[in-house]
Design a protein that fits this description.
Keywords: Signal. This is Omp28-related outer membrane protein. InterPro entries: Ig-like_fold (IPR013783), Omp28 (IPR021615), Thioredoxin-like_sf (IPR036249). It is a single chain. β21 and β22 form a beta hairpin. With 515 residues, the chain is mainly β. α2 crosses α4. The longest helix has 16 residues. The protein is globular, with a radius of gyration of 26 Å. It contains four helices and 42 strands.
Length: 515
């Protein structure tokens, strides 16, 4: 915890409460229950249903609330709705003598349009895919049909029929064609099981002098099986003699281990790891802190610009969305928000801070008028500074506890600081400035270090250090990730991020290098 006088801290929080909501603090409104539905439309076949949830001050009160069809005044039995009559249905919830805003469900007429999927379950590695087929009266019309992911409100282009995801959960889909709507189908995304066999290198970087070497260790379910395993240099297709490697040829080398626990068991192959032999730079990710709020209309409008920028220039940004209720209600606001505001002072939303840079004004970047290309150019500017440290991580789940090991290797000697946090993806909600359901990704949840990072001390180049962390995720979904970032002092009382990385809560990431 930052050592700061409580009086100063309270003054800061008071100042935040007076900050302009997006620019000016709106007049607080009375607390009302919030009614949401899991899908915006159902097929009027009597079996498809919409499921409602009612929250009050962020607490689920569905079982105590009354959900009413506003046209008929009839209260639902339970919290689901189905019908055999097509039409538009509007509902509201009442709780604690307050009534929510209305939610509309479209009941679509049944038709001969059929949606099918080749498999009901995929794993959340972003590579396993489910493929949809749309038929009308027995004819394949997939190429002309439009498929909608109703869970995320994502409407695909005509002909797109493949789904993959890195977020676990159940997703519901429907197709439309020639004014007709299909049945709905679901695809469940499950967490990818972790490989029990791991290959570890004593350092990810060695000199290309034939003498400097890396030492490998092979673990099976945490047990050292190096002497029984086979280590292969997959770059050269050669088996490593013993468990060491050196070379006088500069290159990026990949290695994997294989192990058979017993003659009756299958041979298991580890995930590949990379060793840089020679002067290779670590892959540079830019860390982005985005201060936002569900109440903030410019935040919602900027989200489309940011998405377009990250789509145009992918795999270079590690983002943390810091929610705040300074200008209105935002149930995703963390109790640790104040820690970030001590370092990242700002007076408008949204505000961006790249790589801990507070800019000359100390107030970050207000992006509301930035174009997609301007966002991309800003990312490229920070990326061009390069990374002086690499990050590797392993996270395993034990019940609802994530046990995390973060490994850091600097390419230059110096003093470094490590920050570690949890973010969560796939959180459905509302966002001022965006119609319909809004999916919140990269949402900050837990910080287990100083905001600016815990000091790792004075480190020697190419020497790895590791630290362990545990996170209680009982309040969160499986769509969490671990974010780690490495900072350096900027010499002026601030910090600059030299690299950042993200890891699934039940997975691992290796060091990466620029090629």
């Amino acid at each position: 915890m930052n050592k700061i006088k409580i009086f100063g801290f309270m003054l800061l929080l008071a100042a935040v409460g007076l900050m302009a909501g997006c620019k000016k603090q709106p007049t607080p409104t009375a607390t009302k229950p919030v009614l949401t539905a899991d899908i915006p439309e159902i097929l009027a076949n009597g079996t498809e249903k919409a499921t409602f949830t009612v929250t009050y001050n962020g607490v689920d009160v569905t079982s105590q609330a009354t959900i009413t069809n506003t046209a008929t005044g009839e209260a639902l039995t339970g919290n689901t709705f189905s019908t055999t009559t097509p039409g538009t249905y509007t509902f509201a919830a009442s709780y604690n003598n307050e009534t929510s805003e209305t939610v509309t469900i479209e009941a679509l007429p049944t038709s001969d349009l059929l949606l099918a999927v080749d498999k009901p379950s995929i794993i959340n590695n972003g590579e396993d895919v489910a493929t949809f087929t749309v038929t009308y009266q027995g004819n394949d019309v997939t190429a002309q049909a439009v498929i909608v992911n109703m869970t995320s409100a994502d409407r695909w282009d005509a002909g797109v029929n493949i789904f993959s995801s890195q977020s676990s959960g159940t997703y519901e889909f429907r197709a439309s064609y020639d004014g007709k709507s299909s049945n709905s189908v679901t695809v469940t995304v499950t967490i990818e099981p972790q490989n029990p066999l791991t290959l570890h290198a004593s350092t990810p970087r060695i000199n290309a002098n034939g003498a400097d070497e890396v030492v490998f260790t092979v673990l099976y379910d945490g047990e050292d099986v190096t002497s029984q395993a086979t280590i292969t240099n997959t770059t050269s297709a050669e088996t490593v003699t013993g468990n060491t490697f050196s070379s006088s040829v500069a290159a990026l080398y990949q290695f994997e281990a294989s192990y058979q626990a017993s003659p009756a068991d299958p041979t298991i192959v580890s995930d590949a790891i990379t060793v840089a032999c020679g002067d290779y730079d670590f892959y540079k990710n830019v860390l982005l802190f985005r201060f936002t709020g569900a109440w903030c209309q410019p935040c919602g409008q900027f989200s489309s610009t940011l998405k377009a920028a990250l789509d145009a220039y992918p795999d270079r940004v590690i983002q943390m969305a810091i929610h705040t209720n300074a200008g209105g209600t935002d149930n995703l606001t963390s109790s640790q928000l104040g820690l970030f505001l001590l370092y990242f002072s700002h007076n408008s939303w949204p505000t961006l801070f790249f790589d801990f840079d507070r800019t000359d004004t100390g107030k970050g970047i207000s992006p509301v008028n930035m174009s997609t290309q301007e966002v991309v150019s800003t990312i490229q500017g920070y990326q061009a500074k390069g990374a002086q440290a690499g990050i590797a991580m392993t996270s395993t789940m034990e019940g609802r506890t994530a046990n995390v090991t973060v490994r850091v290797t600097p390419s230059q000697s110096g003093t470094y600081y490590l920050g570690v946090a949890v973010v969560e993806d796939g959180l459905a909600g509302t966002q001022n400035g965006v119609e319909g359901t809004y999916i919140n990704n990269d949402t900050f949840r837990i910080l287990d270090t100083e905001v600016t990072g815990n000091e790792l001390g004075s480190l020697t180049a190419n020497t790895e250090v590791s630290q362990q962390f545990s996170f209680d995720l009982s309040k969160y979904t499986d769509n969490c990730r671990i974010v780690a970032y490495v900072n350096m002092s900027d010499g002026n009382g601030g910090y600059t991020t030299t690299n950042a990385a993200s890891c699934p809560i039940n997975g691992s990431i290796d060091y990466r290098f620029e090629e």
